[in-house]
Amino acid sequence: MKHVPFPLRVAAGLAVTTAERARGLPKQLLELPITVASQVLQVSMRVQQHVTELAIKGDNALAALRRPEETPEWATFDEDLDEGFDDRFDSARNGEQDDPWAEEERALAADHVEGEFDSPEAPAGMAGYDELTLPQVRARLRSLSLPQLEELLAYEREHANRPSFVGMLTRRINNVRQAEGSADSE
Predict the structure, then answer these.
(1) How many CB atoms lie within 10 A of CB 101?
(2) Each residue's pLDDT tens digit, 118-138
(3) Is the distance from CB of 180 to CB of 146 less than 8 angstroms?
(4) SS3 for 146?
(5) What are the DUF8129 domain coordinates in residue numbering (predicted)?
(6) How far apart are the C-alpha atoms of 88 and 7, rounded to whole Å?
(7) What Rg do the C-alpha atoms of the chain give, in angstroms?
(8) CA atoms within 13 A of residue 141's CA, in its CB half-sphere
């Protein structure tokens, strides 16, 4: 058989390919909406990714220009509450921390000085109140009356105004009032 010239072979291949595509055209027309929809979704997802990347870069650029927000007054941090806070946690990591409940028990078991609650210059007659720790004050609260608790709370608010002490005293006053209210209703 003779060799057919190259351009004629290319033309025959083109004719066969056109015939094959023409036969597959109905199938491609059925698949066309799905293909178009998936391509549109791919493009929209790429656009969303690029927009998000631009927003992140913009946030990083603007963060350098913004001044940091001041701490809101309602935000309190542990280091603001107590000077010895870090020391207690450092010693806790080293295994030196006392259990606060044990400290309260020691305060309860300690011999009370005669007339300790009789000092006129101390709030609610509690001598050395300003030097007492939270567990030590908590241990003494059970022996105070409602007026003494209210006096102690007013003193705390006027002087040190320590949130942990104010919260503890407020809760104790509420508990005493509830106990008195339930006793009156019986």
Answers:
(1) 10
(2) 444 678 778 888 888 888 888
(3) yes
(4) helix
(5) 137-177
(6) 92
(7) 40
(8) 24
Nearest to 82 by CA among 158, 156, 153, 133: 133
Q: Looking at this protein, which amino acid is placed at residue 97? A: Q
Distance of CA 43 to the CA centre of its chain: 38
State how far the Cα of 182 lies from the Cα of 185, in Å rounded to an integer. Answer: 5
From first CA to last CA, the distance across the chain in angstroms is 122
The residue type found at 80 is D
Residue 163's nearest CA partner among 70, 77, 88, 68 is: 77
Calculate ∠ Cα 110-111-113, nearest 5°: 125
Give me the amino acid identity at 52. Answer: T
DSSP H/E element including 183: helix 163-185
pLDDT digits (tens, 9 = 90+) for 58-116: 988 888 787 766 666 666 665 556 555 555 555 555 555 566 667 766 666 664 444 44
Rounded-to-10 torsion of CA 121, 125, 130, 136: 170
* pLDDT at 153 (0 to 100): 92
**Would you say 82 and 168 are in contact if contact means Cβ atoms under 8 Å apart?**
no
